[in-house]
Specification:
Elements lengths: L1 H4 L10 H4 L2 H21 L4 H36 L1 H28 L20 H7 L1 H29 L3 H11 L1 H11 L2 H25 L3 H23 L7
Helix pairs in contact: 3-4, 4-7, 5-10, 5-11, 6-7, 7-8, 7-10, 7-11, 8-10, 9-10, 10-11
């Protein structure tokens, strides 16, 4: 059944140049967040400016990722061209699964009285200062652009390609476990920057199943573009829902 849904494509490109990107991890998850936090303190009286700094950091992180993964993304796109129909089917199935899981997790979070559960989506590991809901409601156009175009590429390359892919063929179970553990790091850093461990723990628990589905899609299609497209579409749907909830007054910027 799975093989019919996810027809095999050609093997993924060589991951050797991807697996050792420690310097980029330091830049993207230590240095840039530190600068972002310092700038947010400087603009602490203006929430819009603080969130603007967050958006700029998202763009800078994306450009850093693009500089490292440009050839990798191009080679992986060649895999898509070899089986476009299979890729579209895989991306569509992944998108539907993620949306179903997000809806179920959001409902469960609200039942557990996690009042800010809705701010766990859309998926983003590059928002340092503010939660994603505040980013989208304050800067609708630029916030949505970052969440639907930049963030999917950043998250997919930094986690699925760098951490999951090198182990996925020979040790798939270990690949999932290690990826789940590594996904804690941005949340720990955000907890440090935001001084809110409980909120970031909630976000991690609500987002982890989505990341596992994205990794599964990558494993089945052998191309990083499957989780990128799936995250982009699901994040866009989430952004539209946040827009609507903000319009009717259910959500607002604190």
């Amino acid at each position: 059944m799975i093989e019919k849904l996810f027809p095999e494509m050609y093997d993924r490109p060589e991951n050797g140049s991807v697996a050792g990107s420690v310097i980029y991890w330091i830049i993207c998850y230590f240095m840039i967040p530190f600068v972002t936090q310092v700038l947010s303190w400087a603009f602490s009286t203006d929430l819009s400016s603080v969130i603007g700094v967050d958006l700029v950091s998202c763009v800078v992180i994306f450009l850093c990722i693009l500089a490292l993964f440009r050839s990798y993304l191009a080679d992986s796109f060649w895999n898509v061209e070899t089986n476009i129909a299979g890729f579209v089917k895989a991306a569509l199935i992944t998108t539907v699964l993620i949306l179903i899981v997000e809806l179920g997790l959001l409902r469960a979070g609200l039942r557990l009285d996690w009042d800010y559960a809705v701010s766990a989506y859309p998926i983003s590991e590059t928002s340092v200062v503010a939660d994603t809901c505040s980013v989208i409601l304050t800067h609708p156009l630029w916030g949505t652009l970052c969440m639907t175009v930049l963030t999917p590429v950043t998250v997919s390359c930094m986690f699925y390609a760098t951490v999951f892919a090198p182990m996925a063929n020979k040790r798939p179970l270990l690949a999932y476990v290690v990826t789940a553990v590594v996904m804690v790091l941005p949340r720990l850093l955000s907890a440090w920057w935001q001084n809110d461990g409980a909120y970031n723990c909630m976000v991690y628990l609500l987002q982890l199943p989505v990341h596992m589905i994205a990794c599964w899609s990558y494993q089945k299609t052998n191309t990083i573009w499957s989780p990128i497209i799936a995250l982009a579409v699901t994040n866009l749907v989430t952004c539209l829902i946040i827009w609507f909830l903000g319009f009717v007054g259910f959500l607002y910027v604190v």
